[in-house]
Amino acid sequence: MKEKLKKISVLKYIAASYKATRNRTGWGKKIGGLTDYFRDLKKFRKLPHNSSIPCETKDLYPRIYDKTANTDIDPVYFLQGTWCAKKVFDNKPSRHFDIGSQAIMVGIISQFVPTTMVDIRSLSIDLPGLSFISGSILALPFENSSLASLSSICVIEHIGLGRYGDSLDQFGTEKAAKELTRVLAPQGNLYISVPVDSTSKVYFNAHRAFTREHILKIFEGLDLAEERYIYGRNMTLQYRADKSFGTGLFHFKKRT
Fold first, then answer.
1. CATH of the domain spanning 75-254, picked from 3.40.50.300, 3.30.750.24, 3.40.50.720, 3.40.50.150
2. What is the reported pTM?
3. Which carries the bigger pLDDT value, residue 17 or residue 225?
4. Cα–Cα distance between 79 and 72 in angstroms, integer?
5. Which residues, including other chains, have CB under 8 Å from residue 237's CB and lie 6 or more apart?
6. SS3 assignment, position 167
7. For the chain, counts of helices (H) and of strands (E)
């Protein structure tokens, strides 16, 4: 019965809309968190007063979801960001260029290697070592074979799906890969990451996912120097089609 329901288009649309708009925090957790908050506030106010830093009602700022046993991180962004940063640090380029990756990762890299970030969305912050160019991964503002160190982490899978205001294009990933390859210098290093799955598919309009073979074909003009895969909270050396959805990290080098 469940499989039959999945085939009804209108139900698919309803389910997708529900997933996109639902509040993942239930009322039980909300009420429990607020109860703990006011209990702690009452205890805090009964402690010996620190008159130099008053705790006034007008300044209350409840943060009821942070009392957790483990540090709350996104394992994919944490692992792929540290992987990419180490790659850049180890290779010590005179300048690194990034196309559309997470700004926090790019900012950290820029404090060790002068870095230029390119994105369709402006970066409204000043940081020594980091420069910004407004541009599209489909038309990069660089000469052919000009960049020796280049990254684009969790980017090309989104191109052409409209998620970030870009134009719809079923070949967005292929065009982005072609541009990255075009600007990469001979013997230059390219670091990318993409979702991987048992088959290549579009999760509209979130992202695409690819098989290992599909990614290698898209970048067939480059040599694969290293590959890593993230499944759950672990990074491994092997692509596992049987594990279904994961994230692939690829270090390519351009042939001379």
1. 3.40.50.150
2. 0.89
3. 225
4. 14
5. 227, 228, 229
6. coil
7. 7, 10
pLDDT in tens, 134-175: 999 999 999 999 999 999 999 999 999 999 989 999 999 999
Find residue 130's DSSP bridge partners. 115, 127
Query: Cα separation of 112 and 102, whole Å?
Result: 17
The per-residue DSSP string of 86-130 comes to HHHHHH--SSEEEES--HHHHHHHHTTS-EEEEESS-----BTTE
The pLDDT assigned to 40 comes to 96
Per domain, the residue ranges of the chain are: 2-59, 75-254
What are the tokens at 87? 């790659």
pLDDT in tens, 29-58: 889 989 999 999 999 999 999 999 999 999
